[in-house]
Every structure is written in structure tokens, then in C-alpha cells.
């Protein structure tokens, strides 16, 4: 966003020289998204997308309404779920198991109007509404095993399916809980400011019929506010802070397994001296979002993307200016692809590639060919960096970008069959689809319809 | 100029021209003025030559019971249009041919006056002296104050081109019926209102009279009534009777079968309203006070008046105007419909027919026609679809032919009309062209021509005739009234209907009479004709039967030829008749005739009654022969001539019997009427290029767009990639400072933009705000304002940001930034060295190219095996490669052309699957391809 607002002029090469931002040319052979549909229903920033099933998703944002969409038919599923008077701060779905009925999804939304509302996403009805909060609920999490859900604001509350308050903690902090995850042994981790607090949930037993929630431990290793908190696997979870600290924790005994704060490594900054001013802005290294697979933790650090290998306990690949502006959300696709979206309004698709010949050929030539002309300066810097990173055995290669939003892309959602959904501060949701695949599907439908109409033979 | 075909009889074919002029010793009776209209313009094709009016117009006349026939208004209401044309005279003519079997009044055996809901009658008549031919639509409106409660009106479409009236009869009839229905609906409403008022008056009068009588009764206690009292009682009784009568009338008018009004262009609300009324009356069907009270309650504002016992003399009162007779609302609606008709049939017949065929063909292509056809036309089509169920069968027929085949008859018709005075040329054509294809056609095409179609055409074309100088001929009237009217009118005719005349009528399917009105063919079911004739002319059974049968044959013939040919057929006939005065000439013709592969031609000349003894089944044979013929000619244009002149030749021998006088009169008439009529028909389009019927503004628009597109192609060497962008669905942004220039170019380029659906094209002519992603989804061609101010920086930035979705044509710097194009399609579509000069021609060229492209896209989209795997294990790649090879090898597409067809195919798919139009969002499809900067 920054870049194309400040940039001025219509010539992208001129811009490109100002920052080492990796760009991909107009020819993006590996980018499958060649069709888009703009969905418009919101009147304000759309911040959240949640997947409901294989083809439906819900969007929510600052206008306080929730819209359920069908990615298949590219339309609204039904009317807007409007009940909140202020912006929605958290949204989560859980399958409700009401009295023998078949599973139907329930959407829980928390809002700045200090209410939580539950919606049936098949009928669009509001099921229930809770408004006994002292503060805005900022995060919600569901504990499937215990059939309860938790809300985190200035305090932590435990609720059951029927939205009855089971128990709550005392006032924790004025800033409130910023992130909340479930860990084994009926525990949850809450990130509050610089602290991580581990709570244990006590389910009713024969002894006591009451639910209870107890603070078990406080972890004070972070030096700045914790921004992200994610489960990695059965063994560990990971946290990231505002000053670029990445800490991997043991999930069972809550000890630190690894500590990484290499993201502002001075050696990396050497080759981009002209950008130093920009680069030293503190939010440049704040960790906004994590995503993980079995081996790696992918971190959105400032404007860059980093791949941290859990085994090797070090960064194996990085793209320190992946976007023009902060990366807000990342996701790992099954095919070694990584998608990131950013405040600059673009979505980029990356591929994690193993480096075969470390020194000889730092970057595949085919990749450079796409760059076009007039970018020699910038490219010159790139190999240097690569060589310094060649300790990292992998590289993140840009294979495509999706440009459509005119403002920061807040979040996206990936559907296996229906492409990518992005939501943005420009009030729009864009559905990106594989054009070829869609064309085939349309043909299929066409012949189905022909057959139905009896026109086929 | 040859305008007197009679001279042909005295010349040989090859040198008749010189001899015509050099021959001084023509017999007196054959000498005709060479060209009677030279005073008005040197050019015989001049539009003014025949008619006294400059173009077609619609005339509404009334047969006023006070002053007789009088013109009421014309559409367009411009004295320049009808010029010196005598409207009063023509009103008299058209109003004197009223065939309505309407009978209002006291029918025998009924106590009260009965309203008859008569159908309108539709009549074609011509007056060659005035040079006017008219489709006349008679209708009756109800008026309580009028004699017999009816006011006869008629609407006439008056044209100098006879063939236009003939061939557009069906369309004219359908359109005028709508107008008439509208008038009548309004009239019924007004009439009902009038009746209600009258009833209230009567009721009030009754009350007053009643009280008066009571007072008198009280005052008079002698026990016997004074004469005054008796008078009052009588008056009261007559009022009572009048009330009952009027109630009955009200009931009648409300019980009008409303289904009839369906399909007329009443608005839904009105229709509902009338339905409601109908329902109302049906519930309160007993004719007592209940209906009235209801009526009173719904119209409380009216204050009843006392009705004088003696009604005023009918000449004292002022008759209601047409607007008063109908509701004002309906009246204006009718006027709108009439001016729509005027627009619709404006222009030359050739053009009308072409556009009709065009439209019919487009309708046939309902899957692809939305892509490049005009919004206006599509809407037009929609309207037509709902409006005229009647037209359907007739309209559906042309599409069975291919486009090329359809178009050629049009060319021929103009040739025919030019040459019409030179009869021999026509014959030659017929011989040469007719013979070859006749036989095979006989074999193949019989089955394709079913009876239904036959009947439809019968309906449409059975009024083939030409007028005579002093007479008005009525050629076709409506089915329902036809039987009656024919016998009526013919019986009442005082014409010296000599056998000769009858015969000649049989020959040329036309009546020639002096100062008379004749009704020719009317009845669609031919079977009725002979009986009818027999009944009315017992003395002339033989002749009449001949006539009837012959004309029956002729009807068959005309009924089955396609509309474009009709005119020529008639020409041929007319021209033949005069020439037959010379018997040697006739024999020559007959030998021509024998060359025709018709089944036993001599037989056909005979008569059932043994006048020329011949077995009756020959007629059936002949019919069959004709059927074949028609079918053929639908397929091959060359057949037209042969079939068109067939009947005339067949009937030659009967022509021989015709006396010289008759042939002379006919000759005179033809000589001046036909030749110029045909010339008018064929040239008017040239002289007035703006005569295109449906929406001449859109024509002009097309022309201008074509011209500008042509200019663009010549001016910019990079026109091809720009057009490719449009065709492949990549938004083209035309960037410029000058709004007028940008708009002009956008309009010009919009002819290349495929539509999403049958709405407006996805073209935005002028935007000044920064573009957004949704704009690219919505618009495929955008005119964008370039502003020098810093405020517009955002506009350009947005443009560069979304550059992957757009091609940018910078008008100020004369550059184009867009993907490369290396196909072969666009160079053919937009060749900068093209010889095409005119915008409209180029537009046509583009349309035809795009239609070809559409057909390719259609093929590609609907080829089953291309899109579905042949079996389960077939991979997606295999299917894709099959698609590519089909596009390249079968459709012959090169490089980027493939993308054009693929894009069109996607549009077709989306459109076909659209459940309800308008609900689905357009999809923005794009490719990640590099763009290049083109400069001049």
C-alpha cells in the first residue's frame, strides 16, 4: 500500500529501484488464479474470514455484520447476520451438538459492543446473546474435548454450549488477553502484554460440581508485547513478540525450547543501507502472524517472511522484504506454497524451494528472466544476500501476486477446491479462482443443464 | 425511359428500345404518355413521381353520421408529410369500404338493443390515381349518443409502395390490432362510464317524475286522471324502459370477453382493473339495483341531471371527439403505438424485409446473439415476442434458410422491379434459372413444406393485386367477416362484370373495374369461395368457378412464396397481361410454358365444368406442383422468378379470351401505376438513407460508430492489439484529456465489445475518478479522463497498479500498452487498407465477422467431447490438449485468436447457465501475460 501510494508515476521499474522488493513480472506462469469475483456486502473494513465447511465461509468486520458466503456459487448464502452495534473483534465457529440434531455450525462473534452472539449459520438466526462483559472480548477459543469455549478480554471466562458462564478468572490486565490457545492437560495459554499465563481448567468431578479455572504459571521471557501465539504440534507452541523474538515452548512443561531473534541481523541490513531508516522502524520486526507445518514455523516478521526450522532451530529461508508493508497474515498450502497478504494491498504466492547448488547458482535463471528490464541494480543486491543466507538451505521464491484490493488485505482463506478468498480494508472480499478449472467446471455444468433440458440429444 | 410496357407488344425483345422511340404509328388507343410525372421531377425514380405525399403516414378517419367520412388526424402530424394529398377524398375512399358485420340496435327477437363485439376488419386498398396504397383497419367505437351507439372509425397506413402494404400485411395487421385494441378498451371504459352517468340521470329523472306524479295524484282527487297525469305516467314508463335498456347495455359492455384484450399493450394494472370490473358484473349479474348501487358508490362525484323527455335532434349535438370517446390515457397510448408503427414501417420495403429476416435469424441464434447484437434490437425482439403471437409462424420460417440464401431474394426483387416493365427479361430469367433446380427440389423439398406453413402464408399473402386507375380495390379483409362481406359487396356492385372482366381477374388475381369498389380475395379457407360465388352469381357459375379455382391456385401460389417474391410475382402478372393482347405473343409464352417441367401444363388451363374439359384432380396436381415450387424457392433464389411467373403463363389461354377493351384498360392502369411504384420501391432507400425502420437513431449511431472505428483503424497502426484486447475481454482504457474525443473513440470501439447479456454493453464512456477493481469486472471499455492536476495522480496510480487487467490506449501520447497480438482474425476484421468507405458498411462487415466468430465460439462451447473426459481415467491434460487441437485445427485459430474464442465461450457458458438474468456476477478473467508499449 505504501509503495504504490508514495511511489507516484506509472513506471514500476522506477519504483522498484527504491526498495529491494522482489517483484514478479506480468507473466506469472505458475500463478493459477486467473479469475476473480468481487463480493461486496460490507460497509467497513473486513477483518475476519472463517471457513464453515467445504464451500462456505463467513466474513466479519468493523461494520458489525457477519456475512455468510458460498464460494461455489459466488454469492451470499443468505441475509447478513446483523446484531452487533460495533465492530466485531473475534469470530469463531464450533459445531453444536444439540439434542441429537445433526451437527450444525454455530458462529460465535465477539464485538466491541461488549456482547457475544451466537448464530446458526444454516438458518442465519441469532441463537443467543450474552452481554455481561466488562470489557471487549478480543479472543475466543473452543475446547472441543470439554465442550466449552473461552472468551478472553480483561478476564478469562469459560462458557458452555448454551452460553452459560461456567467460571471466570479475576481481572487480569487492562490491556487484556491478546491471544489464547489450547494446550494439553486441560490447559490454555493466554498472551497478556509481555507475559504468557498458563491456566488450567478444572472440569466438574464427583468432588465438586463446579467448573474452575486456575492460573498455573507465568512465563516472562519476552521483552515486548506478545503479538502472536500458535500451536505448532503436539510437542510445542510458539510465540512471537513486537521486537521480533520468536520463542518455541515445550507444550507440556512450558519450558523454552528455542529462542530466535535474528530477524534484524545487522549483516542482513548491510546490503540495503539506503533503506536503513525505513528498516529500523520497530514494527518492522514485529511478528504478526505464524503458520506452521511439521518441520517449519513460518513467521510474518514486519515486511518479511521467515522460515524457521524446528529441527535445525534456525531460519532456513527468508524474504526480508516480501511486501511493501507489514505482512498481516500468512498461510502454508499443501504444495510447499506459502501465501502472504499485507497492508500494501497485495497477496503474494511464494514457493519454498530447496537450494541445490548453493554457491554456483544462487537463483534460478528462469526466475530472473521474468523480471523484465531496468532492474539490474536491485538484482545485484539480491545474489549477495542469497549468498550470505546460503547457510539457509532453502529459498522463498515469488511465483505470483494477486492485485485487486485497493487497501490493506487483512486476511485470506484458502479453499482446496474453490480458490482463495481475501478480505480487505477496502470493504471488499475477492474470490480468486483458478480460471482453467472454473472453465472446466462451467462446461460440466453446461452439459448437465443441457441434459436436464433435454437439449443434448 | 420506358414507362409504357404496352409498347413491348409491338417490338422484338432485342431492339425494342429503339423501336419504341422510333415507332410513330401507334394506334391511337395504345398511345400513352411516356412518363406522366415528368413535370414533378426528371427522375422517374423520384419519390414524388407517383404519390402526392413524401412518405408513409397513418391516417385516422371517421365516418361521421353528421358530415360523412372525415379525416381526424395523421401521424406524423405534419402537413409536409402528406403534402397535397387529399385526405378528405382518401377518407371517403377508405371509409366506404367498411365490411364490419356489426349490427347494433334492436335485432329481431330481442327486446333490447344488443351490442355486438365485432372484430375489426382489415383491408388493403389502392388508388393508383393518388398513387396511394393503404392498409385500412376498421373499428367501431361505442358512443351512447351516436346512431346505433356506434361510431365507425378507421386507421389507415398509407404508402406509395403497394408491395410494402401487401407484404407487411401481417405485421401491419398485428400492430394496428394492438392500437385498435387499446382504443377499444379505452372506449369500453368510457362507454361504461357514460352509461353509468346516463343511468344516474335516468334514475334521478324517474324519482322526479315519480314525485310529480304523486303530487298530481294527490292534488287530483277526482278519481280519474288528467291528460297531464297520463303524459307524466307515459314519460315515467319510458324512463323506466330506458333504464332497463341502459342497464342491459351496461351489462353487455362489461361482459366483454376480456381474454381478447390480452396481448394488447395494456398495462397490467389496467388489465387487472378491467378484469375486476368484469368480475364485479358477473357477481352482480342480476340486472337490478345492486349493480347500480355499486356503481354509484364508486363514482360519487357525479350529480345527476334531469333528462328532458324529448331528446335533442342528432344534428344539433356535437359528437364526441375520439379522445373523449376513449379515455385520454388510452388515447395517448394509442397515439404512441401508432407513431411506433409509423417508425417501424418507415423506409423501403427491401429494408424492412431484410431487417425482418435479420431479426428472425437472430432470434434463431438465441444462444449467441447477445454477444454482439445491439441492445436496442434485442429489446425490440423481446417486445415483438410478447406482442405478436400471430407473427410467430410467419417469422419463424425464414430462419430455416441459411443467411446467404435469404438475402439473395432481396437483391432479386429489386432487379425484378427495375426490370418489371421489360417483361421479356423476366421470362428469360425464369426459364434459365427455373429449370435446373426444379426437379431435385421437387424431390427433396416437398416434405419440408407442411400444410401449416402453407396456411400461414395463405393468410398473409392472399391479397395480391394492383389497382386500376379509377377504382379502389379491396384485396383482403379479415377472415371472420370475409364470407359475408364478399357476397355483400359483390352483390351490391353495379359494375358491368362481364365474363371477360372476370376472366382477366382470374388471370391477374385482380379486379379491374371502373368507378367501382371490388373485393377480391378474402377468405382464408378456399373451400368456401366457390360456394360463395355460386350463391351470389348463379348465372355465372362457370366463369366464377373458373375464377374461384384459378384464384385458388393463385392463392396457393402466392401464399407459399416468401414475402420478398410476392411483389415480383405481381409484377410479372401485370406485365404479362397487357402483352397477351397479341395472340402470337401469347403462343410464344405458352411454348415457354411447355418447357417448364410442370405436370401436364395444358390440363391446368381447363375448367371443372368442362368449359375446357379437364379432370378435376388436375387442380390438386397443380397445387402440389406449386407446393414444390414454393419450397424450392425458399431455398434457392433463382427459383423465384420461375415460380412467380408461372401462374400467369398457365392462365394465358383464358387471357386470350379477354377482350381488347379490358386489356386496354388494364394496360393503361398498369402502365402508369406499376412502373413508378416499383421504381419508388427500389430507389427510395438510396435516396433516403435514414429510412431504416426500427430506431433510425440507432442506425445513425451504428453508422457513426462504424465510421469512427474505420478512422481508428486507419489512423493507429496498433489498432489490432487494441481490438484484440476488447475481443478477449481485457478491459481497454482509453485515456485522454478531451472528453469529446474520448467518447467518440469509445463509441467507435464499442462495436467490438462482447456483451455479458442482453443489457447495455459493458462500456463506460467517461470516468474521471480512479478506477477500482470492480470497474474492470463491470466494464470492458472505459473512457478515462486524464487531468493534469495532482489530484488525478491517484487515477494514474490505480491504473498502473491494475495494469495487468487493462490495456491502456493513451490518446494524448498516441500510445497503447497491451499484450501482443499475432493472430489472423483481427487483421481481417480491421484491415487498415480496407476498401470499405462507409461507416455503415464497415459496421456490417464487423457484424458479419463477429457473427462468424460467434459461431466458432458456439461450436467450441457446445462440443461435448471437447470438455468432458471420454472416460474416467482420462486426465485433464488430455482434455485440454484436445481443446487446443480443436481450436487450432478445426476452427483454424492462430495464436491469440484462441483466447478470443475461449473468452466468448466462457461468456456463452455463463449466459446459458444463468438461471435468472442479472443475478449472477460477471467474472473478471485475466491472464498473466506481458504487455508491450506500442507507439505510432
TrEMBL record, chain A:
Matching InterPro entries: WD40/YVTN_repeat-like_dom_sf, WD40_PAC1, WD40_repeat_CS, WD40_repeat_dom_sf, WD40_rpt, WDR41
Key words, A-Z: Autophagy, Cytoplasm, Repeat, WD repeat
PROSITE patterns linked to this entry: WD_REPEATS_1, WD_REPEATS_2, WD_REPEATS_REGION
Bias kind Gly residues: ranges: 1-11
GO CC, alphabetical: guanyl-nucleotide exchange factor complex; lysosomal membrane
WD repeats: 81-129, 320-360
Chain residue ranges for the region called Disordered: 1-26
Transmembrane portions of the chain: none
Gene Ontology BP terms: autophagy; regulation of autophagy
Molecular function via GO: GTPase activator activity; guanyl-nucleotide exchange factor activity
Protein's job: Non-catalytic component of the C9orf72-SMCR8 complex, a complex that has guanine nucleotide exchange factor (GEF) activity and regulates autophagy. The C9orf72-SMCR8 complex promotes the exchange of GDP to GTP, converting inactive GDP-bound RAB8A and RAB39B into their active GTP-bound form, thereby promoting autophagosome maturation. As part of the C9orf72-SMCR8 complex, stimulates RAB8A and RAB11A GTPase activity in vitro, however WDR42 is shown not be an essential complex component for this function.
Protein name: WD repeat-containing protein 41
From TrEMBL, chain B:
Any one of the GO CC terms: chromatin
Subcellular location: Cytoplasm
Membrane among keywords: no
Pfam families named among the record's database cross-references: Folliculin
Protein name stated in the entry: SMCR8-C9orf72 complex subunit
Keyword Cytoplasm: yes
Family the entry assigns: Belongs to the SMCR8 family.
Name of the gene encoding the protein in the UniProt record: SMCR8
Ranges annotated as biased composition (Polar residues): 276-288, 574-584
Region annotation Disordered: where it falls in the sequence: 261-294, 562-607, 678-704
Start and end residues of each UDENN FLCN/SMCR8-type domain: 48-909
Superkingdom of origin organism: Eukaryota
GO biological process terms on file: autophagy; negative regulation of autophagosome assembly; negative regulation of gene expression; positive regulation of autophagosome maturation; positive regulation of TOR signaling; regulation of TORC1 signaling
GO molecular function terms attached to this record: GTPase activator activity; guanyl-nucleotide exchange factor activity; protein kinase binding; protein kinase inhibitor activity
Keywords per UniProt: Autophagy, Cytoplasm, Guanine-nucleotide releasing factor
Record-linked PANTHER family: GUANINE NUCLEOTIDE EXCHANGE PROTEIN SMCR8, SMITH-MAGENIS SYNDROME REGION GENE 8 PROTEIN
Amino acid at each position: 500500500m505504501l509503495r504504490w501510494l508514495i511511489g507516484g508515476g506509472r513506471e514500476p521499474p522506477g519504483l522498484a529501484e527504491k526498495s529491494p522488493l522482489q517483484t514478479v513480472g506480468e507473466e506469472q506462469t505458475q500463478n493459477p488464479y486467473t479469475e476473480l469475483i468481487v463480493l461486496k456486502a460490507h460497509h467497513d473494513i473486513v477483518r475476519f474470514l472463517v471457513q464453515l465447511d467445504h464451500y462456505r465461509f463467513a466474513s466479519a468486520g468493523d461494520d458489525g455484520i457477519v456475512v455468510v458466503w458460498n464460494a461455489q456459487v459466488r454469492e451470499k448464502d443468505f441475509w447478513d447476520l446483523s446484531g452487533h452495534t460495533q465492530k466485531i473483534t473475534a469470530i469463531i465457529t464450533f459445531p453444536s451438538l444439540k439434542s441429537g440434531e445433526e451437527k450444525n455450525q454455530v458462529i460465535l462473534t465477539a464485538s466491541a459492543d461488549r456482547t457475544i452472539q451466537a448464530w446458526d449459520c444454516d438458518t442465519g438466526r441469532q441463537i443467543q446473546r450474552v452481554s455481561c462483559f466488562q470489557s471487549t472480548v478480543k479472543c475466543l477459543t473452543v475446547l472441543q474435548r470439554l465442550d466449552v469455549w473461552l472468551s478472553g478480554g480483561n478476564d478469562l471466562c469459560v462458557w458452555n454450549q448454551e452460553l452459560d458462564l461456567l467460571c471466570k478468572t479475576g481481572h487480569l490486565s487492562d490491556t487484556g488477553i491478546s491471544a489464547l490457545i489450547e494446550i494439553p492437560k486441560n490447559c490454555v495459554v493466554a498472551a497478556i502484554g509481555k507475559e504468557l499465563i498458563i491456566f488450567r481448567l478444572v472440569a466438574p468431578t464427583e468432588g465438586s460440581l463446579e467448573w474452575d479455572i486456575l492460573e498455573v504459571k507465568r512465563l516472562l521471557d519476552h521483552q515486548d508485547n506478545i503479538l502472536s501465539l500458535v500451536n505448532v504440534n503436539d510437542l510445542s507452541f510458539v510465540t512471537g513478540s513486537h521486537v521480533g523474538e520468536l520463542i518455541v515452548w515445550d507444550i507440556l512443561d512450558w519450558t523454552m525450547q528455542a529462542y530466535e531473534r535474528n530477524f534484524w541481523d545487522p549483516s542482513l541490513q548491510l546490503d540495503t543501507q539506503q533503506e536503513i531508516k525505513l528498516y529500523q522502524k520497530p514494527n518492522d520486526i514485529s511478528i504478526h502472524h505464524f503458520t506452521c507445518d511439521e518441520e517449519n514455523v513460518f513467521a510474518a516478521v514486519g515486511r518479511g517472511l521467515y522460515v524457521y526450522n524446528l529441527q535445525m532451530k534456525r531460519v532456513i529461508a527468508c524474504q526480508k522484504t516480501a511486501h511493501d508493508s507489514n505482512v498481516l497474515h500468512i498461510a502454508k498450502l499443501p504444495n510447499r506454497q506459502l501465501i502472504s497478504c499485507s497492508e500494501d494491498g497485495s497477496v503474494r504466492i511464494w514457493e519454498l524451494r530447496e537450494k541445490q547448488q548453493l554457491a554456483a547458482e544462487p537463483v534460478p535463471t528462469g526466475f530472473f528472466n521474468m523480471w523484465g528490464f531496468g532492474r539490474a541494480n536491485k538484482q545485484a543486491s539480491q545474489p549477495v544476500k542469497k549468498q550470505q543466507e546460503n547457510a539457509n538451505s532453502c529459498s522463498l521464491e515469488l511465483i505470483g501476486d494477486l492485485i485487486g484490493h485497493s487497501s490493506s488485505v487483512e486476511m485470506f482463506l484458502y479453499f482446496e477446491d474453490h480458490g482463495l478468498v481475501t478480505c480487505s480494508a477496502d470493504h471488499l472480499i475477492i474470490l480468486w479462482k483458478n480460471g482453467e478449472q472454473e472453465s472446466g467446471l462451467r462446461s460440466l455444468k453446461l452439459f448437465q443443464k443441457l441434459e436436464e433440458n433435454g437439449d443434448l440429444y | 425511359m420506358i414507362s409504357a410496357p404496352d409498347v413491348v407488344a409491338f417490338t422484338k425483345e432485342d431492339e425494342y428500345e429503339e423501336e419504341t422511340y422510333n415507332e410513330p404509328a401507334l394506334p391511337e388507343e395504345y398511345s400513352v404518355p411516356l412518363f406522366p410525372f415528368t413535370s414533378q421531377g426528371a427522375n422517374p425514380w423520384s419519390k414524388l413521381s407517383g404519390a402526392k405525399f413524401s412518405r408513409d403516414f397513418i391516417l385516422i378517419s371517421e365516418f361521421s353520421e353528421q358530415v360523412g367520412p372525415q379525416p381526424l388526424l395523421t401521424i406524423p402530424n405534419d402537413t409536409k408529410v402528406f403534402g397535397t394529398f387529399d385526405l378528405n377524398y382518401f377518407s371517403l375512399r377508405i371509409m366506404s369500404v367498411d365490411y364490419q358485420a356489426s349490427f347494433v340496435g334492436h335485432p329481431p327477437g330481442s327486446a333490447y338493443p344488443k351490442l355486438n363485439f365485432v372484430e375489426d376488419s382489415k383491408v388493403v386498398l389502392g388508388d393508383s390515381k393518388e398513387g396511394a396504397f393503404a392498409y385500412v383497419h376498421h373499428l367501431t367505437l361505442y358512443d351512447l349518443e351516436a346512431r346505433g351507439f356506434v361510431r365507425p372509425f378507421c386507421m389507415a397506413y398509407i404508402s406509395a409502395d403497394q408491395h410494402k402494404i401487401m407484404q407487411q400485411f401481417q405485421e401491419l395487421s398485428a400492430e394496428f390490432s394492438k392500437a385498435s385494441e387499446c382504443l377499444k378498451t379505452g372506449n369500453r371504459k368510457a362507454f361504461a362510464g357514460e352509461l353509468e352517468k346516463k343511468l344516474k340521470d335516468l334514475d334521478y329523472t324517474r324519482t322526479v317524475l315519480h314525485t310529480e306524479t304523486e303530487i298530481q295524484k294527490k292534488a287530483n282527487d277526482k278519481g280519474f286522471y288528467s291528460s297531464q297525469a297520463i303524459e307524466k305516467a307515459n314519460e315515467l314508463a319510458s324512463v323506466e324502459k330506458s333504464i332497463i335498456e341502459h342497464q342491459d347495455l351496461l351489462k353487455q359492455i362489461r361482459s366483454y370477453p376480456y381474454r381478447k384484450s390480452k396481448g394488447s399493450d395494456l398495462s397490467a394494472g389496467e388489465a387487472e382493473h378491467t378484469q375486476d370490473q368484469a368480475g364485479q358484473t358477473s357477481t352482480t349479474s342480476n340486472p337490478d339495483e345492486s349493480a347500480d348501487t355499486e356503481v354509484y358508490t364508486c363514482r360519487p362525484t357525479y350529480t345527476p341531471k334531469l333528462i328532458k323527455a324529448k331528446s335533442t335532434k342528432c344534428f344539433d349535438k356535437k359528437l364526441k371527439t375520439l379522445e373523449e370517446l376513449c379515455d385520454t390515457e388510452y388515447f395517448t397510448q394509442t397515439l404512441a403505438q401508432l407513431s411506433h408503427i409509423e417508425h417501424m414501417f418507415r423506409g423501403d420495403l427491401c429494408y424492412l424485409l431484410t431487417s425482418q429476416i435479420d431479426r428472425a435469424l437472430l432470434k434463431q441464434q438465441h444462444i449467441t446473439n447477445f454477444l454482439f447484437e445491439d441492445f436496442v434490437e434485442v429489446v425490440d425482439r423481446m417486445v415483438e415476442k410478447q406482442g405478436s403471437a400471430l407473427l410467430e409462424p410467419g417469422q419463424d420460417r425464414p430462419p430455416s434458410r441459411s443467411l446467404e440464401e435469404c438475402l439473395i431474394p432481396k437483391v432479386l426483387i429489386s432487379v425484378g422491379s427495375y426490370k418489371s416493365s421489360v417483361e421479356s427479361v423476366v421470362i428469360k430469367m425464369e426459364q434459365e434459372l427455373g429449370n435446373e433446380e426444379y426437379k431435385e427440389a421437387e424431390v427433396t423439398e416437398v416434405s419440408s413444406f407442411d400444410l401449416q406453413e402453407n396456411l400461414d402464408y395463405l393468410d398473409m399473402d392472399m391479397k395480391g393485386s394492383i389497382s386500376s386507375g379509377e377504382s379502389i380495390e379491396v384485396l383482403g379483409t379479415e377472415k371472420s367477416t370475409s364470407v359475408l362481406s364478399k357476397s355483400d359487396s359483390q352483390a351490391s356492385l353495379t359494375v358491368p362484370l362481364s365474363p371477360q372482366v372476370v376472366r382477366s381477374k382470374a388471370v391477374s388475381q385482380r379486379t379491374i373495374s371502373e368507378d367501382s369498389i371490388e373485393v377480391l380475395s378474402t377468405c382464408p379457407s378456399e373451400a368456401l369461395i366457390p360456394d360463395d360465388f355460386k350463391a351470389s352469381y348463379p348465372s355465372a357459375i362457370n366463369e366464377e368457378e373458373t375464377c374461384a379455382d384459378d384464384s385458388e391456385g393463385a392463392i396457393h401460389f402466392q401464399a407459399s412464396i416468401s414475402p420478398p417474391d410476392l411483389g415480383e410475382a405481381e409484377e410479372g402478372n401485370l406485365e404479362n397481361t397487357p402483352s397477351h393482347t397479341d395472340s402470337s405473343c401469347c403462343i410464344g409464352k405458352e411454348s415457354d410454358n411447355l418447357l417448364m417441367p410442370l405436370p401436364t401444363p395444358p390440363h391446368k388451363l381447363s375448367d371443372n365444368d368442362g368449359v375446357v374439359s379437364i379432370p378435376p384432380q388436375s387442380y390438386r396436381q397443380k397445387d402440389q406442383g406449386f407446393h414444390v415450387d414454393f419450397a424450392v424457392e425458399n431455398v434457392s433464389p433463382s427459383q423465384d422468378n420461375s415460380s412467380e411467373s408461372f401462374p400467369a403463363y398457365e392462365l394465358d389461354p383464358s387471357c386470350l379470351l379477354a377482350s381488347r377493351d379490358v386489356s386496354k384498360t388494364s394496360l393503361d392502369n398498369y402502365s402508369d401505376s406499376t412502373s413508378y411504384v416499383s421504381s419508388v420501391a427500389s430507389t427510395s432507400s438510396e435516396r433516403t438513407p435514414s429510412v431504416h425502420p426500427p430506431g433510425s437513431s440507432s442506425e445513425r449511431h451504428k453508422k457513426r460508430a462504424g465510421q469512427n472505428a474505420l478512422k481508428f483503424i486507419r489512423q493507429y497502426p496498433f489498432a489490432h492489439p487494441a481490438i484484440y484486447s476488447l475481443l478477449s475481454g481485457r478491459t481497454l482504457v482509453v485515456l485522454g484529456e478531451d472528453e469529446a474525443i474520448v467518447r467518440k473513440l469509445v463509441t467507435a470501439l464499442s462495436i467490438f465489445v462482447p456483451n455479458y447479456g442482453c443489457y447495455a454493453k459493458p462500456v463506460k464512456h467517461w470516468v474521471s475518478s480512479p478506477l477500482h477493481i470492480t470497474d474492470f469486472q463491470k466494464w470492458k471499455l472505459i473512457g478515462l479522463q486524464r487531468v493534469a492536476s495532482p489530484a488525478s495522480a491517484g487515477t494514474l496510480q490505480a491504473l498502473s497498479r491494475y495494469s495487468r487487467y487493462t490495456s491502456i490506449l493513451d490518446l494524448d501520447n498516441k500510445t497503447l500498452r497491451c499484450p501482443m497480438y499475432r493472430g489472423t482474425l483481427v487483421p481481417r476484421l480491421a484491415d487498415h487498407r480496407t476498401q470499405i468507405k462507409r461507416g455503415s458498411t464497415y459496421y456490417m462487415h464487423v457484424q458479419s465477422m463477429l457473427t462468424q466468430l460467434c459461431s466458432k465460439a458456439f461450436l467450441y462451447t457446445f462440443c461435448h467431447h471437447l470438455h468432458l473426459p471420454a472416460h474416467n481415467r482420462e486426465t485433464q491434460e488430455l482434455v485440454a490438449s484436445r481443446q487446443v487441437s480443436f481450436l487450432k485445427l478445426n476452427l483454424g485459430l492462430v495464436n491469440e485468436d484462441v483466447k478470443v474464442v475461449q473468452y466468448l465461450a466462457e461468456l456463452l457458458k455463463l449466459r446459458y447457465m444463468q438461471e435468472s438474468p442479472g443475478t449472477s456476477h460477471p467474472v473478471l478473467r485475466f491472464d498473466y501475460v506481458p504487455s508491450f508499449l506500442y507507439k505510432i
